[in-house]
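Job type: complex structure
Entries:
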Amino acid sequence: MIHLSVHAGPEATADAAADLIANHVVLAQSARGVAHISLAGGTTPRRAYELLAARLADRERIAWWFGDERCVPPDDPESNYRLVSESLIAGGISPARVHRIRGEDPPAPAAGAYASELARNVPTDAGGVPVLDVALLGLGEDGHTASLFPGDPALDITDVWAVHVVAVKPPPNRITLTLPVLRAARDVIILATGDGKRDAVMRVLAGPDPATPASLLADANVTLVMDEAAAP
Ligand code: 6PG
């Protein structure tokens, strides 16, 4: 099921996303003690993270994960960890609560280590899949999400939770959560702003298609948080 949440512009969209995540955190904490949230990279989520940091009541009972990471050091301008460091952590989130993907390490072992860390710390479903409370994701103009790109063999993975991919979007080497983990999340929030994303949004709403990886999440509990420019 895909719910649509449309807002006037990027600031209102970031505000709505921050509120939605903060609300899901409270529900997860009351139900299970700790909230497990995976974060999106790219440029869109920065403002939402800045706003979110100030809206979290119980910051210690949150574990922050990453939907994907570029294979670069954590202080690299392309690092998704650096984005989180400059927004959520700068806003008061403890770095100790942030499970960083080690982008500076060789990709395949780093992906394996992250998958193991996820499985050790996040409650799993009957199939052994880690169940995040919220998977926050962005949307590429080609319909990619996390670092799951159209036509990538990673889209067919069913039994590994994080993998190394070589992407068309620079930087090429990335580590990404796989579809089983993203699909198992209790709530998926896809954040999209700008008219450049409208076509991808349309394709997500058109139904599951490997040519639009984000559309393969359609059977999860998805909220598409977007501005009017990105809305169909
Ligand atoms: C990444 C992201 C990626 C991103 C989309 C949208 O590491 O690149 O996880 O999936 O969310 O490409 O990026 P923008 O927010 O910059 O448009």
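Summary: The mean pLDDT is 98. Residues 40-44, 67-68, 80, 138-140, 144-147, 169 surround 6-phosphogluconic acid (CB under 6 Å).
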